[in-house]
Every structure is written in structure tokens, then in C-alpha cells.
Amino acid sequence: MMLGSNSKAMLTRCQIQVGRQHNTAMHKVPANRERQNAVCNVRRPQSIDAGVLQKIRLTLTKQETAYQNSQADEVFSSLWAHSSRVSRIALTIARAEGCEEVPALLAGLMHDLGKFAYGSYHTDDTPEEKNAVRFAEDILTGTVYEKWIPAVREAILSCYLEGQATTKIGRVLYDADCIDKLGTMGVAQFFAKRALRRQFLDDDLLIRASIELTYAYHSPDTLKTATGRALARLRSVRTRRYFTELLEEWNWLGLGEFNIVEEAIGGIVCVLVVPCACPCGGRLTFESDIQDAVKCRSVVMKYLCTTCGTEKTYSFCLPNVKGLPRKR
After folding, report:
1. Which ranges of the sequence are coiled-coil (predicted)?
2. Domain limits, the chain
């Protein structure tokens, strides 16, 4: 797909989608023609001298970095907050599905124990789920919950390592983890998680919202329980609506030009946040592929500016949808 000379039809199609999303909005938005003009105008070069802009940026980032480094002893608890929520969502789903409640709670609490095992993140080919199971066994051994170790182990491994939630608790855990990342709550977590990774609200972050939109698109069909699918249907709509409205504000205020485009990559529909042009105003070319990652099939998107030569690559794991090519 070529963005630039061939983008007109694509942008028109996307604009129709955006308008339809806003039929139920609670506030007024600009008229269609005004909004389309705001969206589709190619961004002009910055009016401020590039050298001055660079000095401003470096000054701001230097001061903020110095402050952040002074907070080195701060304790990070985002995984605990996520795991606590997942455990309670898992309990809700387990009750509705008639499953054992205690192992659902435990699996939700411990499913991410291996995420940053020993202070590292994916430094080798060891799936984080294997480390999660090791930690879980150490924690539960010798406690009143020891009898649930096999159920917790099987749930975590079947849910993630094998790509298939093959046990009842595994299906509950899979759905609970997905539900926590959907809807208004999921959007809030997307921004919080990116901030922890020192990624803030800018063009790059908006492009990375493609993962949230793609997962939301497929969630009603990929979740494993009837309760999970019912919960996902409403939250999927909320996710799409939020990012649609965010991009309309972004475009209308002259901060950039982006559109939401549904693109089939390797036969799998991906919902992408696509820039209309490079920040320099140049035309962009777009390449995509599906590649193997440690524990998933990953979509890789590459943007290249034909004017300034800037090249950027983005990737994310695809949901386990029907028709997804197997790992090589």
C-alpha cells in the first residue's frame, strides 16, 4: 500500500467510517466537509526554525530526565495492579461459567509473574509463562493453596505458551486478561503502560494504538467463554470509539493527520492508525509482513518517507484468530 499519491481513496473510505462512529456521539463535531479538510490537508513544514525547536526539545527532555533519574528508588507496581484486576475479572467469569473460583483467582494473580523475571524482559527464548509457573510453584508450595498448583500451572501454560486455552481455568484466565485491556479501562492502561516505557502522547504513540484497535476488533470472536465474549462486545465498541474521537481531535487541532484503516495483512484484518504524511510533509510508503516472535505471530509495519528518508518500524503480536498463519 502506498500512502501519498494513492491515499485519496483510502482516506475517503476511512472518513466515512469515522463519520459513522460519531452518529452516537454526545457532543457536536465539525461538519463533514470541514472535518475532512482538516483531516486530509498534508501537513506543512514547521514555521519555527528547526534548530530552535531542537534546543527547546533537548532542554525539556534533559530537565525531565534529570528529575526521573532522581526518583530511581521508586517502586513500580503496574503489574500488581493489572494482576489484581485480572484475578477479580477471572472470578466474575468463573462464577458465570460455573468454574472453580480459587484457582481462577490464583491464576489471575500469578499469570504475569514471569513478565520481568529476575529484572529482565525477553532477553532469551524462554517464554515468560515458564518463569511465571516457577514463581507460582515456589509461592504456593507449603500453603493451603498447594493443591491448586497443577490447575494454575496448566491454566497459565495452556493459555499462553501453547496459544490455546485448553482447560476451563485457562479459558477463564485468557478472557479475564483480554477483558482488562478492552474498553475505557483498557485505553487508560494503554497510556499508563506507554508512559512507564517513556512513550508519551505523540505521533509514534498514536501509531502504536493499532494494537489496541486490532485486539478490540477481534476480541468478540477470539475469547474462549460465552461470558467473555459478551463482555468483549460492548468494550470493543468503546475502544474503537475512543481512538476515533482522539484522532478527530488530533487532526482538527492541527496536531497531525491520521486515519483508522482496516487492512488485511497475511489474510488477517488489522485495524491500523495510519499517518497521512511524514512530519516533513513528504509522502510515505508502507510495507507490512507477519513474522515469528517469541510466543506469537507478529505483524510488522514499516513506514518510509520518500522525501527525507526517515524509516520507522512498528510491530505487535496478533491475537490468535482463525486463519492466522502458523509459526515457521
Report:
1. none
2. 2-41+187-317, 78-179
